[in-house]
Amino acid sequence: MDKKIKEQSNTIPYLPEELIINILMRLPADVLHSTARPVCKRWAYIVRDPLFIEAHLRQSKTVLFIEGTGSPKKAHLLEIKGGGFQVTDLRHRFPGRMMASCDGVALFNDPNDNRVFHVANPATLKVLKLPYLDAPSNPLYYSNCIGRVHSTGEYKVVHAYEDLNKEYHWLVLTLGIDNSWRKISCQHPFSREYVDLDNFPVSVGGVIYWTDCDFQVDGFSFFLAMDVDNETIHEVPIPDVSQEPCAYMKMGDYLSGFTTAPLSLQFEIWVLKDWRQGQWAKLYQVNMEISIDVPQDLFFYLPLGWLNNDEVLILEALTSQGDMYMAYDVKKNEIKIVDLSLCAYDFYAHVHTSTLASWTIQH
């Protein structure tokens, strides 16, 4: 009798495929990889299916990957769970400093050698060391980013730099295909007079934007963007607003611009609806109502990223008491203090999506 009960307890009852997929789709990527996948061959097949991985990616919510500037580099995730904010200590040590993230795959750079790169999926802990970058070790400027071609699922890493002769170079590596970095030609005769490349481009919707340094040519204000698919460089106009955006961020499948003024509790969010046509649209105009928990002497604040389906904006604020972190819910017009005391005092923050995505999967 006991043996029969034990056999029944170890048997997974038959469930319709659609129901199993629906259940698995609701689980976090790390749980799917470490716990659900080993349950049985049927579940493992579903979890490895590229169509399932893509669908899971599309419904996954963004988190904030927070990495301390000290050594050893400790990383945490800030996410919204159960209506509150949760900070999780990522005990795994990642290969360097995160430079960018795209659809669950992150790019890391060795802090001791800017020509050594890895890509990793923090949810599955899969890591790949990239071919050594054949570029100067001491460029005047350089930047790194990762993007994805939606039609094929290919991930590409982009490295742009200015050499000591003040010439600009663009190198691309397609993950899983290229054995070395490829130099691409830029069709625009950019000169040192009006272009600088920054260290934090924004990757969204198959386009990489170099937003920190916009510039003017013949009265036209723009920043640079790369179409990840065909590897071409384009000029994207900045939004025509009274107060120029001081920060740009990923917002769903679009680039968003955050504009405010010093000592002001008002800000606007603009969205780049069509990057090829340079069409911007104002999405939010916000007048923050400061709660009793928030100091009244906000000198300045900048956004770190969007969480919870782009409804909650995490802000870093400067006050007379020092730096503090807030979360503003644009739907509820509510602001809350976010406790990041578990994180390092100085850190870098990147918007990241926890997914099962892999650079070896092609769509």
TrEMBL record:
It comes from Camellia sinensis. NCBIfam families: F_box_assoc_1. This is F-box domain-containing protein. It holds the Pfam family FBA_3. SUPFAM superfamilies: F-box domain (SSF81383). Residues 9-55 form the F-box domain. InterPro entries: F-box-assoc_dom_typ3, F-box-assoc_interact_dom, F-box-like_dom_sf, F-box_dom, SCF_F-box_component. It comes from the Eukaryota. Coiled coil: none annotated. Transmembrane segments: none annotated. Gene3D superfamilies: 1.20.1280.50.
